[in-house]
Amino acid sequence: MLVIPAIDLRGGKCVRLYQGSYDKETVYFEDPVKMAKLWRVQNARTLHVVDLDAARGDRSPNREVIRTICKELDIPVQLGGGIRTMEDIEEAIGLGVYRVILGTAAVRHPDLVSEAVANYSCSRVAVGIDARNGEVRIEGWLEGSGLDAVAMAQDMENRGVRRIVYTDIGRDGTLQGPNLGAYRALGEKLRHARITASGGVGGYADLVRLKELASHRVDSIVIGRALYENRFPCQQFWCWNYKQDVDLDRFSTANMASRPDKNLNP
Fold first, then answer.
1. Among residues 154, 176, 223, 226, which one has the fewest Cβ atoms lying within 10 Å of its Cβ?
2. Nearest-angstrom CA–CA distance, 56 and 58
3. What are 181-203's pLDDT values in tens digits?
4. Is 8 an annotated catalytic residue?
5. What is the CATH number for 222?
């Protein structure tokens, strides 16, 4: 089970939202680049970055932050939020992003997904499905789509997608545990795509439960609040409590291959 730290960007800062609400925001770190380096020092193998400003259609102030994160780290970065055209995909890859995650665009323009996979490969293009009560939400989770999450995932798989990042909005930021039933139901319908779970993890026990879904195509988990709030005992042995004093330019001793796609599978 690959644990992927999340960095949500809003206004150039590292934040977390509660159940996707922009009115329920917690700022965890003023400097997202330092935050990214800290996760790397703690042996992160990849990072999940979301541009919250771009996700709801606002002009994004986060692009240079994303470029710097990609430049400063020796691990792959996947990016979601506001990527809705081929030009957006090209721009993101130009920033140094290894993988883009299409959300709203996959709902409104599914043919774009097919084109993107054909142009950039299934390793570099994933689809994010953000759902509440089984319905796909779009525009930064602000609008309903009327689409069933499982049906959408099947369509995306048929278009060549091999990575689905599935977020249960009702669990996101709550620490109340992931929606195991939703991941199980999704995994039973997929044949080729793998699932990255997202939303609700509150501690180590949740990781154990998610690992039991390996046969349902779940192989990784994006974690935000639980990591930021030091919910895992192993973090006590790292540098969280004195993060201002850590040498963030020192990369960890994680066993890294020479190519990023060795660490970020389709």
1. 176
2. 6
3. 999 999 999 999 999 999 999 99
4. yes
5. 3.20.20.70
